[in-house]
Amino acid sequence: MKLQTMTVSAVAAFLLGLLQAYLLILCWGYINSYSSTPHWLIGLGLHGASLSYTLLCLGLIINMLLSLPAAFVLLNLRPARFSQYVSLAVLPSSAWLNRMLVNRMYDGNFFGPLPLGWLPATLALPVAAWLLWLVSRHRSPNNSFKADGSAAA
User: How far apart are the first and last CA of the chain?
Assistant: First the structure.
């Protein structure tokens, strides 16, 4: 791969990560405003840690679904070292969004809950890209029709 192509792909992955982070924030604003899922889960009797972990899992699933288009674009960059491109897409935007929280952890009072909250946003794009990669690599060519349009025997 030429250096220029690799640089363009790296910049594209970085910009894709920033755009993905912005769109996730925008979507989560609407989801939090109009979703009744937390009230429904509380009505089912979940509270405390079980409610937190259920919401964490739901957040990861929703983030993965919202990250599928970005993962598709990232896979179409055809990177030789996919982990570098995923890192360029995820880590800078995650660091930028959490820069104020990292410096002020309030003397460690929130050290447990905050990193757990970062997991869905940080892992969503890599997991979505990995799942798309798994689905796309097992494609076999369709040899059921010949070139002239007749069915193969």
Answer: 41
Boundaries of every domain in the chain: 9-137
Q: What backbone torsions phi and psi does residue 148 show, to the nearest 5 degrees? A: -85, 0
Residue 55 has pLDDT above 80, yes or no: yes
pLDDT of 61-105, one tens digit each? Answer: 998 999 999 989 888 877 677 788 888 888 877 777 777 666 665
Max Cα-Cα span within the chain: 72
Q: Are 87 and 10 in contact (CB under 8 A)?
A: no
Question: d(Cα 132, Cα 30) in Å, to the nearest integer?
Answer: 26
Determine the pLDDT at residue 69: 92
Burial class (CB in 10 A: 0-12, 13-18, 19+), 71: buried
The C-alpha angle with vertex 122 and arms to 102 and 16, in degrees rounded to 5, equals 110
CA angle 111, 98, 90 (to 5 degrees): 110
More confident residue, 59 or 1: 59
How many Cα atoms sit within 13 Å of 65 on the Cβ side?
A: 7
